[in-house]
Amino acid sequence: MPEEPRRQARGQRRMEQLTDAAAVVFAEVGYAKATTNAIAKLAGVSPGTLYQFFPNKEALAEALADRYRAELKAAHEKAFDLSMVELPLPEMVDRMIRPMVDVNLANPGFKALFSSGDLPDRLTAPTRALQQAVTGRVAEVLAARVPGLPAEQRDTAAAVATQIFAALLGTIVSVPAADRERWITELNRALVGYLSPLADVPTNG
Amino acid sequence: MPEEPRRQARGQRRMEQLTDAAAVVFAEVGYAKATTNAIAKLAGVSPGTLYQFFPNKEALAEALADRYRAELKAAHEKAFDLSMVELPLPEMVDRMIRPMVDVNLANPGFKALFSSGDLPDRLTAPTRALQQAVTGRVAEVLAARVPGLPAEQRDTAAAVATQIFAALLGTIVSVPAADRERWITELNRALVGYLSPLADVPTNG
DNA sequence: GAAAAATACGAGCATTTGCTCGTGTTTGTC
DNA sequence: GACAAACACGAGCAAATGCTCGTATTTTTC
């Protein structure tokens, strides 16, 4: 089997250029209609060079998904502290939403991978991994906030919350910047409304 | 300009066979990866025949979307009566959800058109029209239930509710039949949680 | 500085796919 | 039954697209 070549600095840069370009093209036309030749061209590189680093189009998307997952993790680790779980629910939800929205605004390609429904089979793997990462975080926070909550209920709630988030994310990032806060508020209301029956902290009345 | 031929009975049947086949193929592989040749083959017809009735692939999707819109409208008109607005919120929401879910289960292609993110430009028209139809219905009911609600808030709430619905619909239809009720309940909880602050009828405590 | 490994090029292949067109058959009209 | 309109066929075109491969250049290793 062909083993991975030892990348040199130039190669590392190329790979970043290529994933950058892929993000832009995915964001513009969606994964399905994105062409590898267009990605190579945008990266200022020949098709052959692209395939020196990525065996196929899917690998490019996987690399992107990995990058996003890492960025998300970083954003969360920066934004999450366990003290959150004692905040009033709306504020806690807000703290969870913000970094996700920010990552999304900073990476236009994210949505194309995170919430597009029309991806080839292999790609469901990275996509699910991304969603799974988010769901996992939510479940963690939920567990910390409501220790008595049965695991099954907790995981279901986390999954639903993530899907609600994904659904409204599209609107939030595509709406003019001036209206953004309004929609974020709405997302917050939706999540709080859904979660409060089981996650609202007793010290609230 | 080429005028529409006067369809005869045989032609009408073919058109239905073709939209039926399109629904199946769209449902199986999504719109983007669906091939017109595959649709023709499934309909038991040659590619040339397909193009006798539909100028292109998009037209096929538009015809499908129109059919779904009609079916949805019928389902709603059967399920909606104004007495609903005096029911407790969870029951009202349930009455709105059921027919939509049923239409979805009966028409596997629906989701591909209703909540796929990766469609060509022209198709956003029928897709948006479909979503708009649903949003309009929700807004109507909301208006009837909470007459004092400002129109802007009402429309926003309707839009958000529709998006939440669309997001969870995918899970609901793709999950094994045994788990379906559980997820419908969850969707109900999400919608009720979101809507109750502004739509809950005062006669509730 | 020479051999090896990594990087780069870009014309073009193999395949797919939406769609056409020449031709033949069925249905409706008078 | 004759003439036209609608229906049907299916081989195959033109364009797009993921990807290859022979060749050439740069970087690393010794």
Topology readout:
2 copies of one chain form a homodimer.
Chain A (H helix, E strand, L loop, with lengths): L8 H25 L2 H7 L4 H7 L3 H23 L9 H18 L2 H6 L6 H25 L5 H24 L2 H23 L6
Helix pairs in contact in A: 1-2, 1-4, 4-5, 4-7, 5-8, 5-9, 7-8, 8-9
Chain A binds a DNA duplex (30 and 30 nucleotides) through helix 1 and helix 3.
Q: What oligomeric arrangement do these chains adopt?
A: homodimer
The major β-sheet of chain A equals: none
Interface with most residues: A-B, 33 and 33 residues
Strand fraction of chain A equals under 5%
Q: What sequence of helices (H) and strands (E) makes up the elements of chain A?
A: HHHHHHHHH
Rounded Rg of chain A? 19 Å
Give the helix/strand class of chain A: mainly alpha
Number of strands of chain A: 0
Tell me, rounded to a whole number, the average pLDDT of chain A.
88
Helical percentage of chain A = over 70%
How far apart lie the N and C ends of chain A?
65 Å
Broad shape of chain A: elongated
Number of helices of chain A: 9
- Report low-confidence residues of chain A grouped into runs of 5 or more: none
